[in-house]
Amino acid sequence: MKIAATVARYLLGLIFLVFGADKFYPFIHSGPLPAGAAGQFMGLLMSTKYMLFVGSFEVSGGLLLLINRFVPLALCLLAPVIVNILLVGILMTRLALPPGIVLAVLWILVFFRLRSAFQPLFQARVQE
After folding, report:
1. Distance (Å, rounded) from C-alpha 82 to C-alpha 102?
2. What would the pLDDT profile of 63-78 be if each residue is shown by its tens digit?
3. pLDDT greater than 80 at residue 113
4. What per-residue confidence (pLDDT) applies to 33?
5. 128: helix, coil or strand?
6. How far apart are CA 87 and CA 81, in angstroms?
7. Which DSSP string corresponds to 74-127?
8. What is the rounded distance in angstroms from the CA atom of residue 2 to the CA atom of residue 67?
9. Which of 16, 17, 41, 89 could form an SS bridge with 58, CB 3.0 to 4.6 Å?
10. pLDDT at 19
């Protein structure tokens, strides 16, 4: 399980670093926007520069995963991005669903390896 989590951490870090950097300096040809609501949604995110903020979360989280520093923080930064990818895949276009599922599985593998770091978040009451 340790090796699988390490491989998942490197893959997740590399994926988010590359695709996050692509939001700042487009070097991956993505083709035209999808039709319908998904295309309108993506067009709106790009026209308002919102994707630059998403890209900054992706790059910083990916970099932290690759250098193996502050990995729980990196997982917290990347979790909302993965949830949004999954929601776009479920609600707008099925094209985003397979990559979202792969990212979610990789994230879960890394999370389970570090679940003790997240244990305080799941306490019903805080002792003062």
Report:
1. 10
2. 999 999 999 999 999 9
3. yes
4. 83
5. coil
6. 10
7. HHHHHHHHHHHHHHHHHHT-GGGHHHHHHHHHHHHHHHHHTHHHHGGGG-SS--
8. 17
9. 16
10. 96
CA–CA separation, 17 and 56 (whole Å)? 9
Report DSSP state, residue 21. H
Q: How far is Cα 104 from Cα 111, in angstroms, rounded to an integer?
A: 10
Please state the three-class secondary structure of 47-89 as a single string: HCCHHHHHHHHHHHHHHHHHHCCCHHHHHHHHHHHHHHHHHHH
Handedness of CA 99, 100, 103, 104 (dihedral sign): negative
Separation CA 113–CA 18 (nearest Å): 24
65 in Cβ contact with 9 (< 8 Å)? yes
